Amino acid sequence: MLASLFINNLCKVVKNSVKTSFKSFTSSTSFTSSTSFTSSTLMLRDERGVLEPQSDLLSTALAVIGFVVLAALMSQAYLGYEDRSFALENYESASLLADSLAAAPALKAESSNMLSAAALDKLSGPEGTVARDRLFAAFSGNYLFLIEIRTGNEQWQWRIEPNNAEPDSLMEGREKVAASVPVVIELNPAESVPGTLTVVLYKTGWM
Length: 207
Prior knowledge:
Helix content: 40-55%
Shape: elongated
């Protein structure tokens, strides 16, 4: 937002500068009715009276282009730095959340230390509202995040989102950082498969 405001203000200054140069050019090359034919002829032959305003206008135009290009590059660099700084500052938090969730009893099978496909089905489905509230209340704090769990062959995957998230707060285009940890998922008592648990941490107004 600051970069956009800077560019808008710069464009206004440049626009005013071009207008001033153009007015100076037209006033210096205009003729009044009281000017004699001889004076007009001398004015036309005077290269300084005709060429200098054009030279000034060309210089101003080149300066405008340079400033606009510089402002665009600065804006892109600033926005890129913001994106990278958020990822660097919050990756560790996302990683710690992923480690903690991988060990959370709410995701575990009763008879083993593996994640339970049945528990994941419940947490990601409409009947898991209360269980989701308890899960995110224990881990979220000031963070806005969702959980993605999938098997190694991607045949099975689950997405668990907080119930109280705003409709547009978890959109694909929002700034975020993700961290994953390996897990083992128990599909049934006789079958278990390797997979990954990923925490996607989203940027909020207070982060």
